[in-house]
Design goal:
Length: 201
């Protein structure tokens, strides 16, 4: 499995819109039709169905990890495995299945980090949980985790390629949160459990 095949496979897997698939399976409203309109686990949670939101979260995270696992299992080299992970993340954020308008990528990014290193994923998730516990801003937690991930990747793994991929993932994730950044600066961002919360996976 070469780099191109790995990337195409990763993108196709990443483009599976679990928020929409799970919502249809549970006969819920399309998550793009309410809340923030983003097809992510947080918006599915707004439907009031916690099981559907959890399944969406697991599915979105799993596809980032699975793309890399399958590529490695097929004998792909380090660069191809990394490309599969990056492509899966981009597939979630810009899925052809939803007209290239996907989620913000938090869960799928975590899955990609897990594909690189369990410790990297665990520490990054720990940062996310700590920030959200202290501030109750899920968007701020995602931004903090995204900013820390490249530094952690280099510190834990010391691998230039992995650090570059993690940096690219973080940069796209931060860009996708541009509206949240504006709201945070304006003091209008909703907290977890509040009515204005707009963070989505």
């Amino acid at each position: 499995m070469n780099l191109l095949v790995s990337a195409v496979f990763g993108y196709l897997l990443g483009s599976l819109p679990f928020a929409v698939i799970v919502s249809r399976a549970f006969r819920l409203a399309d998550p793009r039709s309410f809340g923030s309109g983003n097809p992510g686990a947080t918006n599915v949670l707004r439907s009031g169905h916690k099981a559907a939101a959890l399944l969406t979260l697991i599915g979105d995270a799993a596809k980032g990890w699975l793309a890399m696992f399958v590529a490695a299992l097929a004998g792909a080299g380090e660069a191809a495995v990394a490309a599969a992970g990056l492509a899966a993340f981009l597939g979630h954020v810009f899925p052809f299945t939803l007209g290239f308008r996907g989620g913000k990528g938090v869960a799928t990014a975590l899955g990609v980090l897990l594909g690189f290193s369990g410790a990297l994923a665990a520490i990054t998730a720990g940062i996310w949980l700590t920030v959200i516990a202290v501030t109750r801003y899920s968007s701020l937690a995602a931004l903090a985790a995204a900013a820390a991930a490249p530094v952690l990747a280099w510190w834990l793994l010391g691998n230039t390629l992995i650090t570059l991929i993690v940096t690219l993932v973080s940069a796209v994730l931060i860009y996708r949160h541009k509206s949240n950044i504006r709201n945070l600066l304006a003091g209008s961002e909703g907290r977890v459990g509040g009515r204005k919360e707009t963070q989505d996976n």
